[in-house]
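step=encode ok
step=design start
structure_in=
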């Protein structure tokens, strides 16, 4: 256990001198398991500093610890943003990637057919070529090393709804899922529509172990009538604009917003559901709505708005992100828009983007019938044909982003009736395992393409310095065990609203590193 380990170590070195201080602060240490170091014991002075810096450790995790060198050896590095992969050693120092030494020729990702079935024995006895003196050593034999994952669609419910989640617990959930960069949505209370609220989010995010970014809302108060001061919000740190959760129904208003966003070179992300067509949100009109005896939400509500908004996006030249696609017809519309954008654009950068969530490519409306409100979300889970259509969109890169739509809700909220319970489910801690299982193992989409959709692609759309492993860049990494099997039993989130609770998963995050620090380890 973490507490016993830390207490015994400090007692043995400091001979009980700081026992009282430790006892006062031990309850604030986060629940990450610290692995036994392979380096020499720290000096008395360093241990004193380490204990003192735990004052805020419930918020910052390992941010307070002195930076160390870490050597990761024998893993298979998959780095699609740099078009590189192979067995490699990585040396991390001062929070950055200092060295990357490949143990074999670096193939271009394009055209490769690397399998996920390498064994733990491969590469184990190859000579270490990176200087290891004074390093903590992580042996990643039999495991993949990915860039830290990037999620561009998360809800940390802070400010205003912190009984569901807050920025600190959301960051812990992200770390447990392999995510080191997260873009937050704006439907908080107050809405992120002013520099002051944005500053609150970003400052609190800076206290966590991960990189926390935020969008600004498109409209003041998410009312779809008055534009935010988009230029000022960009200056204040917004990385995009969205009214996620509430569709923008006024086409003229949206066109004006897109023109301004295009001039600012920031993306607009869109929640596409025409509310005039929907009887009850979160339940597909079909077998699920019939089961509950309600009208539900037809796929036409999504299809119609996507068709309209893609035309406006192509007209204005804005970078657009069509969020959480749920219908196969939507995939077809996006595919056509991507083609037209490529034909009429400058050929340099794709501007039409789309997200799929793991829940939409894993589950169907049957989950809502079986599990009730815990599987209710907007847009709703639909048919098997729609699920397979989304997977085909991921396969041909029509859908180039995998986003979680991490949406925590309190148990008492999800315990309400199917029509009264809020929509949404947790996503950060299960996304990589589901992507690996459903897309790589079952759909046989090449792993580098799936990882690109979780890393370099979303980072590129939102202009983040993330998602690719490069010498000199921040050391943000995810180590993944493809052979691990586990049952989802608990979450680092404040909430537990997930239909995957109790489900057996294939493939598991082992270690997450952000800014050169280990911020999560599998227990």
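sequence_out=
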């Amino acid at each position: 256990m973490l507490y016993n380990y830390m207490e015994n170590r400090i007692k043995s070195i400091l001979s009980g001198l700081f026992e009282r201080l430790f006892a006062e602060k031990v309850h604030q240490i986060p629940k990450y398991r610290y692995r036994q170091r392979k380096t020499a014991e720290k000096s008395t002075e360093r241990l004193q500093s380490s204990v003192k810096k735990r004052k805020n450790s419930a918020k910052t995790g390992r941010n307070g610890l002195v930076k160390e060198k870490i050597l990761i050896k024998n893993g298979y590095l998959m780095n699609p943003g740099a078009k590189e992969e192979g067995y490699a050693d990585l040396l991390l120092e001062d929070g950055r990637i200092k060295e990357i030494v490949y143990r074999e020729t670096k193939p271009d990702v394009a055209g490769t057919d690397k399998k996920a079935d390498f064994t733990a024995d491969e590469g184990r006895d190859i000579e270490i070529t990176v200087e290891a003196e004074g390093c903590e050593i992580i042996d990643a034999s039999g495991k993949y090393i990915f860039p830290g994952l990037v999620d561009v669609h998360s809800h940390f419910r802070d400010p205003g709804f912190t009984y569901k989640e807050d920025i600190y617990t959301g960051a812990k959930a992200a770390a447990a899922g392999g995510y080191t960069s997260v873009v937050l949505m704006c439907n908080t209370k107050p809405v992120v529509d002013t520099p002051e609220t944005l500053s609150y989010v970003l400052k609190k995010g800076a206290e966590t172990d991960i990189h926390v970014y935020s969008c600004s809302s498109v409209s003041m108060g998410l009312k779809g009538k008055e534009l935010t001061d988009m230029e000022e919000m960009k200056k204040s740190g917004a990385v995009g604009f969205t009214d996620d959760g509430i569709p923008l129904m006024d086409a003229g208003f949206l066109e004006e917003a897109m023109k301004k966003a295009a001039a600012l070179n920031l993306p607009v992300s869109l929640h596409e559901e025409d509310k005039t067509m929907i009887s009850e949100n979160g339940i597909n009109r079909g077998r699920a709505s019939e089961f509950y005896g309600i009208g539900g939400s037809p796929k036409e509500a999504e299809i119609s708005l996507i068709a309209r908004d893609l035309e406006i996006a192509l007209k204005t030249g804005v970078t657009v992100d069509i969020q959480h696609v749920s219908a196969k017809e939507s995939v077809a519309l996006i595919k056509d828009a991507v083609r037209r954008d490529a034909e009429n654009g400058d050929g340099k950068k794709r501007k039409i983007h789309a997200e799929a969530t793991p829940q939409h490519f894993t589950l169907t409306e049957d989950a809502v019938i079986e599990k009730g409100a815990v599987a209710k979300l907007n847009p709703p889970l639909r048919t098997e044909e729609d699920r397979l259509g989304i997977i085909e969109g991921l396969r041909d890169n029509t859908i180039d982003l995998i986003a979680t739509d991490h949406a925590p809700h309190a148990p008492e909220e999800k315990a309400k009736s199917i029509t009264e319970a809020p929509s949404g489910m947790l996503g950060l801690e299960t996304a990589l395992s589901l992507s690996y299982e459903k897309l790589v193992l079952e759909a046989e989409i090449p792993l580098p393409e799936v990882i690109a959709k979780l890393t370099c692609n979303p980072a590129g759309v939102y202009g983040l310095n993330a998602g690719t492993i490069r010498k000199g860049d921040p050391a943000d990494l995810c180590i993944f065990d493809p052979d691990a099997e586990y049952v989802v039993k608990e979450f680092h989130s404040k909430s537990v609203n997930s239909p995957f609770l109790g489900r057996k998963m294939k493939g598991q995050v082992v270690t997450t590193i952000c800014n050169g620090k280990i911020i999560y380890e599998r227990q």
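step=design ok
step=annotate ok -> The mean pLDDT is 86.
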